[in-house]
Amino acid sequence: MSHTKIGLKNGLTPEIEKQLGEFASLAKTYSYSPYSKFRVGAALLAESGNVFLGCNVENASYGGAICAERTAVVKAVSSGEKKYLAIAITSDQNDFISPCGFCRQFMVEFGKKLIVLLVTAEGKVKKFTLEELLPLSFGPDNLENRNDL
User: Fold this and answer.
1) Active site residue 109
2) In the predicted structure, residue 147 carries a pLDDT above the cut 70
3) Which domains does the chain show, CATH number per domain?
4) Active-site choice (17, 69, 81, 144)
């Protein structure tokens, strides 16, 4: 399953947030993590209602690995979607996991107001904006007013 669509007529409701957590859990099942054994899944909700799934994909050279969050964003962008409402992220742990710094920087390219749902394996949720997770970030807004580009 590369992506699915959900209705957004009532906005980002608790029911939709729960669905995103479930989609992230599904995405986690596709993880390729033979080295760390640390499966991560992400479900990225675009403004259109399309949901893009991502999982972590490891590589023997370690640096060639890609996180679940970036996988979901790359799938969305390569499908023509660049405006997002929320992303749910989960692992097999009962603790909350948070996007790494590289993923935070990668996602801020598409908006600081992105809702980030951290979901435990048990289904507990913590909700943040990307701006809360990456305060004082550097992004497109920092470049728009530059005259020397």
Assistant:
1) no
2) no
3) 3-144 (3.40.140.10)
4) 69
